[in-house]
Amino acid sequence: MRKFFGAGPAGWRTGALAAAGLASLGLAAFRGPLLDNPVQVIAQKLSAYYSLTQPEKVYLSLDRPAYGTGETIWFSAFVVDALRHQRDTLSKVLHVDLLSPERRVVVRRTLRVVNGRSYGDIELTDSLQAGTYLLRAYTSWMLNGNPNLVYQRRLQVWPASPDQTDQAGAPLSAAPRTTTAAKSAAPKLDVQFFPEGGTFVAGLPAVVGFKAQLATGRGVDISGQLLDGQGKAVGAPFSSQHAGMGRLSFVPAAGQAYRARVKLPDGSTADYPLPAAQASGYSLHVQDVGPDFVIEARYKGAAGAPAPGPVALVSEVRGFLVGLAPRPITPDGVPVSWKVAKNRYPNGIAHFTLFDAANVAQAERLAFVQNGPAGLRLTITPDRASYAPHQQVRLKVQAADAAGQPVATHLALSVAEAGAAALDPQAGTIVSNLLLTSDLAGYVEDPGYYFQSQSAATAQALDNLLLTQGWRRFVWKEVLSDTPPTLVYANEKNLTLSGTITGMGSRPLPGSQLTFIQTKPMRNLLTATTGPTGRFSFSGFPGQDTSVVTLQARRGAGGGSNVTIRPDMGPSVVGPPLPPLPLPATTPGVADYLRRSREQQVQERQLLPDGGVSRNIQLGNVAVTAKKLQVPADDSRRLYPGVVANTIVDFANMPAAQSGIPIFSLLQGRVAGLTISGTPPNQTISIRNQPTSLFLLDGMRVDASAINTLQSSDVEAVEVFKGTEAAIFGAGAGGGVIAVYTKRGDKNYHEKNTTATPGLITVKIPGFYQAREFYMPRYGAPVMNAPTSDPRRLTIYWSPEVATDASGTTDVYFFTADGSGNFQVTAEGLSLTGEPGRGTQQFYVAPK
């Protein structure tokens, strides 16, 4: 069992909470009045909570911040415990998903984790829809907590394939085109107000954070004036500071309804209400005063109510807890205050909570602790300032802690064209993720901004973020409860098939009888009974092969089979579609990047024997290929046996099709020009902006709704006909034809066949994904067929694992490619003690 006790910052007088086992907080570390019972109870409860839940975090380091269609995402995974950020030994399986702009899973990777490290790649098919994608990574154990805390990163995927078409079906040129924006309604702006501490109390001074953003999460700068119920101005005008966030201060009066009159970007104004003030309650104010935090609490009681008991203040940063002595508080709003030095905490989010005499959390506030520069110091030194194409480069990588002492580290290192590396300059890093965004629920815009400098303006912007962003690592009511949290998901040590048996109304069915039949790669027969939550779990599948499993369930001993088997599918996918890509002409560097990416892909295709005509594209565990599969021409379900489909998608051999993903969602990214809109089961398809008007189910014409109701595991293949190939189907096929063939293949297929057999399901469990090796030529090496030229690669070097030893140094060697210009080296990772760090350096490659 892991216990995290150890040296903290100098001068600490608090113990570190255990993150595993049943170890308790070292309460002897609290001195004097800190041993009062309320603080002891809170500390013990929080210690027990962390001991049971053992939270984890995941971070993915990428070779670049943005990509184009037809390119490859290379990633290196860090799986750490959420408290000390040291490499995790709990989970051995990592799941990585790529979600489309409509938030549908299009690629899923299952990876083996060794000592908290893993790596992989995702090839973006050249027919993939361009747009903003979501990359997420998680362990099964992480799903016991808030699913919003799994690793998520927005990725811009630009239309870079040579044959990529725009939404109108026209080829996209490398140069930006002049576009006239159509007149449309201005995007709706959401403005919210957040009282510091959680509530307004009439008569008590209040600090109010505000956030103005679009539905996409993008902040919009605003200005405005606070008004009372009579329309009179209250206080000074306010304006946002960064990403649509800012603050204002005032004293709310009883009985007043306040609103903010906001000036919108188009010059118009709109009124937004503030939350109503309470007649009585607590307020909490936290002020950053250099080396310390000063915390002030007030209380206003109801008329005639007795005086409250003493209040206690508890603060916590990733399991390091500081409890401050309970103090008496009066009901007349007179403040009580505490001061706490920042060096009592590690760097990260401090969670301040005010407890009343009954140990009920009355107010909460987040603040950021930054004791000097955050993270490791990573220095990268090339052996020269400039190089020729195909010349060997030697990089010296040095790692040191905040005190300048060398440290051993585990890093990921990439070298990419500087223009490609700078497409998203304020993207998240391992530092911003582990110290900030991994402990916040919801999307944080440009997280790298908050760590680019230690200026007062940046610190103020970060505090505004924490005034308005939700804390969701835990909820005090759950922590202080005598009932331990329910842990539904197991920590995977190997490949696992788990899920829930449900009955009517999706209610879990405890005590259900489950039969497990494995046919590949070995034969196996097991029986099991679901637990009190209707859950089941089978593990121990071989990691090198795909396993085929049939599950049969019925209600208890001798019960009926009218039950549903629901395998786990990862975190729920909720939220609006991701924001569209901006116009290349309005985004610095994108047009030039698209040109270079297309040049690279054209050169790559020319190196293939057939010029890339039969180029196969495979997206990992989910088999996605541009290869045209052969459907028997004499199949009786085919209306026109002589017509060959433009694209044929093989569902029978696609692992994702066995896991319940909607059929239309599985077609996304596998059929060029195909776009999905809507949400299951009400999805629609268009091909090159033309609504698909003809659907065939085993040769019969049906509505799209009939396809929407099918289980993807029942489908054998889908054929897509476009253009002249679709014309033979008649005038009604102008928008294309989608022909679906089921495994049962009955030409009399009807509605009752569109649902899976109750209590029976067949699942394919892919083995661990085998990551590809990044191609790195050795020019001039004494080997057969040594390369004399190389496509202009945007990423010329990638290593998912670079380690510095106890001296803090290591050397990295690679060759430059054909491309010239500036190249950026990026290294990021962790020390053995859990300190994150990131470093960059540039060098120049002269033209040939």
Give helix % range: under 10%
What CATH architecture of the domain at 622-765 would you give? Answer: Beta Complex
Number of E strands: 47
Question: What general outline do the C-alpha atoms trace?
Answer: globular
Oligomer class: single chain
Strand order of the largest sheet: 2-8-7-4-5
CA(first)-CA(last) distance:
58 Å
Q: For this structure, what is the CATH homologous superfamily of the domain at 622-765?
A: TonB-dependent receptor, plug domain
Main pleated-sheet profile: 5 strands, mixed
What is the fold named in CATH at topology level of the domain at 622-765?
Ferric Hydroxamate Uptake Protein, Chain A, domain 1
Binned strand content: 35-45%
Uncertain residue segments: 1-36, 165-184, 608-630, 746-755, 782-789
Tell me the number of helical segments per DSSP (H or I, 4 or more residues long): 9
Supply the helix-strand structural class: mainly beta
The gyration radius over C-alpha positions equals 29 Å
What CATH first level of the domain at 622-765 would be assigned?
A: Mainly Beta
Q: What is the residue-averaged pLDDT?
A: 81
